[in-house]
Each structure stands twice: as C-alpha cells, then as structure tokens.
Request: fold
Amino acid sequence: MVLVSPLSAVAETVEVAPSVQVTKRSYTAPVNEQPFFGFAVKSPEQKAEDEKFVSAIIGATGSREKAFEETTKRAWIAIQAGKVREAALRFNQAFLISPEQSTVYHGFAVIAQARFNDFDAADELFKIALKQPNPVKALKADYGRMLLIAKRPRDAQEVLDQAVKESPDFSDAWTNLAWARFQNGDPVAACAAAEEAAKKRPSNNSVSDLTAVRSVAQCK
Reply:
C-alpha cells in the first residue's frame, strides 16, 4: 500500500469572480450555509432561480449597488447577533449580486472561522478581501482578530498596526491591537492601545474584550 500525503496534492481552485481564484472547500452543512454554496454544481433550474432572485432584489431596491448594500447589511447584523447560519445565507446572496466585492470575501472569511473553524480558509479569504473593491473599515481589524484566535499574534500585530493607521477612530482595531501587543510580550504598549480604544466608543462586541485586556495587562 502506498500512502500519499495530502500535502502532496495540489488544492483545486475555482474562479469565483473575474481574476479571483479561491481554494475549493466544502463542509458538513447545507450548501447555502457554506461559502460560495459549497462550490456545489448547480442545475439549470437552480441557476435560473438565482438569476430570478438577483433580478427581483435589484428591482425592489432600485440598483445592484443598493441590493448588495442591503443584503450585506443584513448579513453583518446577523453576525453581530451570533446568527452565523443566517449570515452565511445573506453573504451567499451578496455573492450572487456582486461577486467581485471585498465584503463577500470578508464575510465568508468570518463564516469559515466562526462556524467551521477553518483558519486556512479564513486567511485566504481575508487576503482576497484586501485586494477587492470597496473594503469596509472593519476588514483589517477582523483579519487581525482572526489571526489572534489562530494563535498568530505577530502576524496579527502587523495587520492591526495598519488597521489603526488607516482607521485611527475605529475602537475595535485598537482593542485587537492591545491584545496583539500583550500576547507579543509588551503590556505597556497594550495598555496604550487599550487607552486609545476606550476613547473611541467601543462596539458592543468589543467592550468585554477591552475590559479583559486591560485586566490581564494590569493597565492603570
């Protein structure tokens, strides 16, 4: 018997938007709750339903841009409420509407990490999101947080240093940077970042993180 290492196999990639290649991955979940519908092959009837959905929502909102904005808004609300399955459904809808947009890959990265614990997929998708049009302010803050959860604090700090430079008014980025600095052995710098976070109205999701990092870093 010849054992073949899975590392020796070349991962299959799929073009999901013009000039955007993504590693093909699937999970144990309904296809519409997986990023990119789990790369399932759709029947002509299913493709027709997708086209019908896109036409209907564009008609209801007035434009493709507004349809995308409304769909992703609902997806992020679901994420904030901990409704990851609903969020996945919404991001798949957004993918049908405008597959080239940064928010699609950002959202799928969050889903890959939060629901499927797939840090490799999340990392790949965050990197794609950084290159695509119209990234949201939270992108690098979320990427850095994922890297922290993946126990990659040095990589996280590099991303989060960029996040606070580009969006110095975004509290969550400063909170995540505080954690990165603490995990990299610099509690004084962590407290400085936490102080900046506290000045800038932390989101409901980051208040507990901010309190925790100030406690472990023994900030005054």
In short: DSSP finds ten helices and two strands in the chain. The beta strands are 13-17, 20-23. The longest helix spans residues 44-61. Residues 180 and 217 are 11 Å apart (CA to CA).
